[in-house]
Amino acid sequence: MTSSTLHSLHLSPAQPANVGEALRELAVAGQRLVMALWAAAGSRASSALQRPALTAYEEAEELRTFALSYIDSDPHFANDLFAAADRHEVSARR
Q1: What is residue 5's predicted lDDT score, i.e. its pLDDT?
Q2: Is residue 3 pLDDT above 60, yes or no?
Q3: How many Å separate Cα 53 from the centre of its chain?
Q4: How far apart are the two ends of the chain, measured CA to CA in Å?
Q5: Which of 42, 67, 81, 93 shows the smallest number of beta carbons within 10 Å?
Q6: Is the CB of residue 91 less than 8 Å from the CB of residue 62?
Q7: Quick one: pLDDT at residue 60?
Q8: Over the stretch 57-92, which tens digit does the pLDDT of each residue have?
Q9: DSSP string of 12-80?
Q10: Cα-based distances in Å from 33 to 1, 2, 63, 78
Q11: Cα separations (Å) of 1 from 4, 6, 84?
């Protein structure tokens, strides 16, 4: 018969030198968190303000312009893009 013994290690968490030091570390971490959240919120707001929402017609026109760039190299793909633009524009009218 075989037996196994598990030896447990008693590790204690790292203790800050004093309460004041722990509070300073907490304040710095909190400040970094607030700054990161502020920066993330600002970048989302600025990216939303950069370009107004396009109408379905404008989106379809952008896709048609993109399709024209493939008309010589891959006409079948370009035709698929033209058809998708038409479908998008028609579906928005309903």
Answers
A1: 65
A2: yes
A3: 19
A4: 78
A5: 93
A6: no
A7: 93
A8: 999 999 999 999 999 999 999 999 999 999 999 998
A9: PPPPPS-HHHHHHHHHHHHHHHHHHHHHHHHHHHHHHHHSPPPPHHHHHHHHHHHHHTTTTT-HHHHHH
A10: 56, 53, 41, 47
A11: 10, 17, 73
CA-to-CA distance for 79 and 86, rounded, in angstroms?
Answer: 11
59, burial (CB in 10 Å: exposed 0-12, middle 13-18, buried 19+): middle
Task: Report the candidate in 83, 85, 88, 86 with the shortest Cα–Cα distance to residue 63.
Answer: 85
Cα distance between residue 69 and residue 51, in whole Å: 23
Q: Are 22 and 16 in contact (CB under 8 A)?
A: yes
The one-letter amino acid at 21: E
Please state the length of the chain.
Answer: 94
This prediction's pTM = 0.47
Longest Cα separation, the chain: 80
